[in-house]
Amino acid sequence: MPRIPGVPTAKASRLLRLVYRYTRRRFGAVPEPVTVVAHHPRLLLASGLHELLAERAVRVLPTSVAELAVYRTAVRLNCSWCIDFGTMLQKHAGLDIDRLKHIDDYATSPLFTRRERLAIAYADAMTDTPLSVTDEQVTELEAEFGRAGVIELTYLVGLENSRSRLNHALGITDQGFTSGEACRVPVPSDRQGATGLTEEPA
């Protein structure tokens, strides 16, 4: 259960109900971070718009490279919600999710390509505290993906650092997207509490 319970459907504004409806239709359940951040509607709308625009802008990197870098960041920060959601996204993209169990061995595992290893290592370096990114690393990434690719990769890893740290701090955990059971933690209702069942917002 998150440290701050999500906004119940019964207390949601008309606009927030539309947001709930949209995300439920897209993902099969309303992502719990949405219901928690909904306590600050302006930030919810700002972050939602940002996510949609960023999603449309990401076109340079191969999907597997981008998704693995984001996933690795979530693993490093131990954000179980992001790991769960990211696995679902990779599954829907037709990527091999079985190899994610071996992500810690990416540097030597034959399950990952050279390009993927470079991106994952960069995600590690960006997520270290303090950061451990080197000039040589960026030069190698530029040679592989071009300058736009480096910017895109850096942006994606930075964005996932923000998501993971926010979710972790607020106690938002695995929602069941990978297992297809995400509706077991749907939008909270007044009657049943923050983790109770409720029907789709009207």
TrEMBL record:
UniProt-listed InterPro entries: AhpD-like
Gene3D superfamilies the record matches: AhpD-like
Domain of life of the source: Bacteria
Protein name per Swiss-Prot or TrEMBL: Carboxymuconolactone decarboxylase family protein
Lineage: Bacteria, Bacillati, Actinomycetota, Actinomycetes, Pseudonocardiales
